[in-house]
Amino acid sequence: MTQNPLAARAVHTVLLQPAGIEMEVEEGETVLDAAFRQGISLMHGCKEGQCSSCKCVLVDGDVELLKYSTFALSEMDRDTNHILLCRTLAYSDIEVELLNYDEDLLSRSIAVKDFAARLTAIVPLTHDIFRLELEIEQPLKFWAGQYVDITVPGKGVTRSFSMANPPSDPRRLHFIIKKYGQGAFSALLDGALRVGDPLMLRGPYGTCLRRENRTGPLVLVGGGSGMSPLWSILQDQIGCGEPSRPIRFFYGARQARDLFYLDRFAELMDRLPDFRFVPALSDAAPEDGWTGETGFIHEVVRRHLGELGDASAIDVYSCGPPPMIDALLPVLQIAGVEPEHTHFDKFTPALR
After folding, report:
1. How many CB atoms lie within 10 A of CB 171?
2. Are the C-beta atoms of residues 327 and 232 closer than 8 Å to each other?
3. What counts of helices (H) and strands (E) characterise the chain?
4. Largest Cα–Cα distance in the chain?
5. Torsion angle, CA of 344/160/210/198, rounded to 10 degrees?
6. Is 172 helix (H, G, I), strand (E, B) or coil?
7. How high is the pLDDT of residue 45?
8. What is the pLDDT of residues 84-117, one digit of tens each?
């Protein structure tokens, strides 16, 4: 009789301090994957050892680290017992000290699951940005700002994409995706991926989710496909039934042809009492006839933050390429935005 290999796996206990949470991890399973499986939402980003969001300190126990980037975990970090939970395999009971944890996030944890889906539409939004629309067999519970891993069966391609729709429609998901010349998933948009094709989803993931019952100004900052989670957060905020709050949506693009949803933003500015969409072009073409904001989006945010009053009451959500977010964070710090009110999702390149 064939023995189930999973049955032979050793199981260890992980103690997460200072949260005081205990969970189990199987040998061969990363600590972060074990947390996802058990519905414990720890700080994380790329899940591939590139971003350092899940960095913590190993207090006790025997572990091994899978391959990771030294940008995420330096040699000095390793000398001081720092580890990345997404790369950590446990070979004994272990205790770790979380450097970043959010009690609100832990209270809203959702167990990661697999979902079968079908592609229902591919809608071009610009020359290189598309909206993918999917229907899934079972409803996916998620928080606005989270993402899933999408796998194309038979293609060997899995990529992470943020939901663009709010959680109120858990069976029909939208994703705003930017096409890259060498992208393994992007290449499928040239005809290999068709309406009706089956897809597999795993999730939800992500910690850049909309915090509820906040009344101060809401600032959204994005570029490229960073529009996707921010659009979800915006729609969720509008429809949540909470009191209205000042909202500013900053979006960076190179040229006018890279902008989209302008009609939708115009409608929101007419309908909502204190909402503004502020697009900015970093390389406006003469034929654009552009009269709006110019420059990099962090510079534009710097010029406008003072209009919102007390910066300590502001909540900021920023999604997009790492250089954009890296440039924005010191702007927010200097302005007085509280670190615990600053949430971001760096769209790091996927490992092949």
Report:
1. 13
2. no
3. 7, 19
4. 74
5. 170
6. strand
7. 83
8. 999 999 999 999 999 988 888 887 889 999 999 9
Beta strands in 209-263 (DSSP E): 218-223, 247-253
CB 116 within 8 A of CB 137: yes
- Residue 339, judged by CB atoms within 10 A of its CB (0-12, 13-18, 19+), counts as exposed
Instruction: Give the count of alpha carbons within 13 A of 145, CB side only.
Output: 24
* pLDDT at position 352 over 50: no
- Count of CB atoms within 10 A of residue 214's CB? 15
Residues 153, 102: Cα–Cα separation, whole Å? 35
Predicted confidence at residue 6, as pLDDT, reads 46
Sign of CA dihedral 75, 76, 81, 82: negative
Which tokens in the block code for residue 242? 């909470």
Q: Are 297 and 223 within 8 A, CB to CB?
A: yes
Sign of CA dihedral 220, 47, 44, 158: positive
User: Nearest 5°: phi and psi at 2?
Assistant: -75, 130
- Scanning 151-310, the segments in alpha helix (DSSP H) are 227-239, 262-271, 297-304
Query: Residue 139 — φ and ψ, nearest 5°?
Result: -60, 140
pLDDT of residue 109: 85
Q: Is 301 helix (H, G, I), strand (E, B) or coil?
A: helix
Judged against a pLDDT cut of 80, whether residue 202 lies above it is answered with yes
CA distance 296 to 298: 6
| Alpha helices, H only, the chain | 31-37, 75-79, 103-107, 227-239, 262-271, 297-304, 322-335
- Asked if 57 and 96 touch (Cβ cutoff 8 Å), the reply is yes
